[in-house]
Amino acid sequence: NQNIKSYFGAGPSKIPNEVLKEVQDEMLNFDSTDVSILEVSHRSKNFENVVNSTVNLVKDLMKVPDNYKVILLQGGGNGQFAGVPLNLLNTTGKADYIVTGAWSEKAFKEGKKYGAVNSVFQTSKTYTGIPPQDNWVLDPEASYLYYCDNETIDGVEFDFIPKTRDNVPLVCDMSSNILSRVFDVSKFGVVFAGAQKNIGCAGITLVLVRDDLIGKRVFSFEDFKYGVRSCVHLTYDVVHPSKSTRIYVLNKVLKWVKENGGVENMEKMAIEKSSMIYKVIDDSKGFYYSHIKKNSRSRMNITFRVGGPTGDEALEKKFLEEAAAEGLLALKGHRSVGGVRASLYNAVTVNDAIRLRDFMKNFMNKQ
Ligand code: PMP
Fold this sequence. Notes:
Pfam families: Aminotran_5
Bound molecules: 4'-deoxy-4'-aminopyridoxal-5'-phosphate
GO biological process, one term: L-serine biosynthetic process
Protein name: Phosphoserine aminotransferase
CATH superfamily of the largest domain: Type I PLP-dependent aspartate aminotransferase-like (Major domain)
Low-confidence stretches: 221-230
Strand content: 5-15%
Domain Aminotransferase class V: 8-353
Helix content: 25-40%
InterPro entries: Aminotrans_V_dom, Aminotrans_V_PyrdxlP_BS, Pser_aminoTfrase, PyrdxlP-dep_Trfase, PyrdxlP-dep_Trfase_major, PyrdxlP-dep_Trfase_small
Distance between the termini: 21 Å
Number of helices: 8
Number of domains: 2
């Protein structure tokens, strides 16, 4: 039924309908203030309550230990590509990066502007999986070890937490899979996530940082050619003016996660939805083709070609057109890799995944 829409955008992406409806209902009168959330003062008690509630929900849903701060920043994931080295490249000026896709590659390149950053293995230009940890070369003097848990463009996701050496803090970009599986925060020095995939709308970044890593930066921002004073938005040891409507949306999405079975249930659904689509790919005898090694397949962003390993572009175009005509939207792969990408974030329902699965089967059978 083409009147039903399923939205598979990679980011910005689906926000739960229940949340959108609530935002709509409250738009003219936020928390009995007689003004909207877009207009209300960020210093008002009402808005302060939203910020505090958001931080508490994050702590609750992710079981954040007491020795971590939950920080809400501007600047998105890209902001943190600079924020991480600015705050952590402190003791040695060196850092290790695990490059498994386009986003960690970008972070690695950004990190190079600030210090001696090293890639722990030789990367090829196409990303299809994660080389075994035994083959990584880790620098014992690294200030941190950086990786991206889920590569949104390539569709590569870690199925393990990397081991660091000699208490080197682990830093993780979880922009596109945060709150989609249970993980032990205490294994990390810093976890960050732009909100616009799994937890809200664009323009707000969630950062969890271990207390002992705060305030250790040795650089003064004036030392930098890049960004100079505006970088104050990126520091972990400054109290941030959290005047963002996006925190309000984040707050509502976190409440929605809690009401819908918490992270445990999000994880269960992520496995159910993604397995459904990978099964169609695996049963298709190469008609649908995934380049990603099975143990690194993303549960969030399923990338595949139509018509064989290199893709038949005319057939892919037809696939996308017919999908859109059936209300299955935003399935085009990232322009750098082509093909199809189905993003199955938390707000994408099992029913959406079923609709996509059935469409894929029918499309194949018709050719
Ligand atoms: N990291 C990952 C894994 C991403 O998917 C993205 C955005 N697609 C970014 C970082 C960059 O985030 P932003 O657009 O918020 O700067």
